[in-house]
């Protein structure tokens, strides 16, 4: 495999934060490329079709490009359109549907091998998010085709018995939308209430639907087994078996820790598995290798989002430029 090109910065991940890093590199006159294993802003594309962001549109802006939406809180479709426009405006150098397979540190630079070719770069920015690897329940039957860790559209579940695991935004949205399309919805919730982070304009809706019995909910409970036509729930009253057609396990997601470890990024030994990095420069324990966006938070995937990490690119590129000037 021959090396295709050399860059000052190679960015892994074509989400909003990866795009913002590329814009900063372009502004600084540095050569760069974005490598993305899926489509543009792949994680946002995989969000539920009818999702509305918690953030207002101006907090999702990058590159100084205004984000105009029909309502204060934009939809998934509006966000996809916005980030396409931003990419076109800056004519960003990006390769989509190209999986990064390995990163190797060589003398003074990195070699990045992908499924298509290889590159060398002085600096690497990893902005891969966390949406690709679901947190598994590790229970019998989780691998059945009827089980999905991603939710897209409610129509598919019309007239079906649907069990939803979880009590945060993704779970609540799936429960309300499938219920309103005619599904028989049951929720299994590990704690004693709906999650505190649920969008404030949605929370009363799900609470009322549960209280009136339109949506059944088992609190302080866990799903313990899945079979083709039924599921087992461990509740305070003991094991309950109910009929079931589909399971939506909205159990959250996590960064690809094995990829980070393979590269040589140090991770904390506790549950959070925080990647080692300087919060001012975003540089990891590996010189010239940086983190940006959600991946910085390890298992604490609620710490970083677009609105509070869109300045990571400025920090990183500023540090790179300063390092170049000091050589």
From TrEMBL:
The keyword Flavoprotein applies. Pfam families: Pyr_redox_3 (PF13738). Gene3D superfamilies: FAD/NAD(P)-binding domain. Keywords: Flavoprotein, Oxidoreductase. It comes from the Bacteria. GO terms for molecular function: oxidoreductase activity. The keyword Transferase does not apply. PANTHER family: THIOREDOXIN REDUCTASE 1-RELATED-RELATED. This is Thioredoxin reductase (NADPH). The lineage of its organism: Bacteria, Pseudomonadati, Bacteroidota, Sphingobacteriia, Sphingobacteriales.
């Amino acid at each position: 495999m021959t090396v295709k090109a050399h860059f000052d910065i190679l960015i892994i991940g074509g989400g909003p934060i990866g795009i913002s890093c590329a814009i900063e590199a372009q502004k600084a006159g540095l050569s760069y490329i974005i490598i993305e294993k899926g489509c543009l802003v792949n994680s946002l594309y995989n969000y539920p079709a009818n999702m509305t962001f918690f953030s207002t549109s101006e907090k999702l802006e990058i590159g100084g490009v205004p984000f105009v939406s029909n309502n204060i809180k934009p939809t998934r479709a509006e966000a996809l359109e916005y980030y396409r426009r931003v990419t076109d405006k800056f004519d960003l150098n990006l390769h989509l549907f190209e999986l990064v397979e390995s990163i190797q540190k060589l003398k003074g630079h990195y070699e990045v091998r992908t499924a298509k070719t290889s590159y060398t770069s002085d600096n690497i920015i990893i902005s891969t998010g966390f949406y690709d690897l679901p947190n598994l329940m590790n229970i019998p039957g989780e691998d059945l085709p009827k089980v999905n860790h991603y939710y897209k559209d409610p129509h598919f579940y019309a007239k079906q018995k649907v069990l939803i695991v979880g009590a945060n935004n993704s779970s609540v949205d799936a429960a309300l939308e499938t219920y309103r399309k005619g599904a028989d919805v049951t929720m299994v919730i590990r704690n004693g209430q709906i999650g505190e982070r649920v969008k404030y304009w949605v929370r009363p809706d799900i609470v009322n639907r549960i209280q009136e019995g339109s949506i059944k909910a088992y609190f302080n409970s866990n799903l313990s087994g899945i079979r083709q036509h039924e599921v087992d729930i461990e509740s305070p009253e003991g094991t309950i078996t109910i009929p079931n057609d589909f399971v939506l396990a909205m159990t959250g997601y996590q960064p690809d820790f094995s990829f980070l470890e393979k590269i040589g990024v140090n991770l904390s030994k506790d549950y959070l598995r925080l990647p080692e990095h300087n919060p001012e420069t975003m540089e990891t324990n590996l010189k010239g290798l940086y983190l940006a966006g959600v991946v910085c938070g390890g298992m604490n995937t609620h710490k970083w989002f677009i609105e509070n990490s869109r300045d990571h690119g400025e920090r990183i590129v500023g540090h790179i430029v300063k390092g170049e000037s000091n050589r």
